[in-house]
Amino acid sequence: MKAHEFVLALFLVSAIAIAGLFYYFFLSSRQAADGGGVSNPTKKRFFFFTALAVVMIILLLVTIPKSPYFLFTGENPSKVVYVAAKQYSFTLSSSAIDPQNPVSTEAIELPAGQPVEFRVTSLDVNHGFGIYNERAELVTQTQAMPGYVNRLRWEFTEPGTYNILCLEFCGAAHSFMRTTFTVK
Ligand SMILES: [Cu+2]
Predict the structure, then answer these.
(1) pLDDT in tens, 1-11
(2) In 62, 84, 122, 171, which residue has its Cα 20 to 30 A from 93's Cα atom?
C-alpha cells in the first residue's frame, strides 16, 4: 500500500469512527430527552472527549513523522539547485543567482536515488514551485516567496524529464510559467 493510500484509509476509518461516536451520542441524548436511560451525561461527555483525544493523539503520532519537514534533514544533498521565480518564468542554476541578472544554467540534471536540494525564492510576487513527473503527478512542491529562500529537499526515484509549474496564480501568463529538468 502506498503512503497516500494508507493516509486515505486511515482518514476514512477515523471519519467513520468519529461519525459512529456522534451517532451514538445523538441516539443516547435523544433517549435522555424522552426521559429514558441516560443516568450520567457528564460521564458520557467525559468518555466522548477522552475517546476524541485518543483518536487525535493517534492521528498525530501516525502523521507527524510523515511530515515533509523531516525529510532528509540529517543528510547532505548531493546537488543544490538555485531557483528564482519571476513573472513568468523560472531561473534554474547550479550556482547562486544574481537577482539583478538572473541567468539559467544550460540544463539541470539531477541524480536519481540521492537527496537533492532546491533553494527557491521569488524576485517579484509569490509563486508556486511544483515538480511534476512524466505522468503529470505532483511529486513535491514549495512556495517561491520574495525575501525568503525555501529549501526543498527531495530524492527522485524515477529517472526522466520533470516539469516545474507555478502553483500560485501570479498574473495573466501564470499558466505558461514552466520549465523542465532531467533526472538520470
Ligand atoms: Cu503563477
Answers:
(1) 677 788 889 99
(2) 171
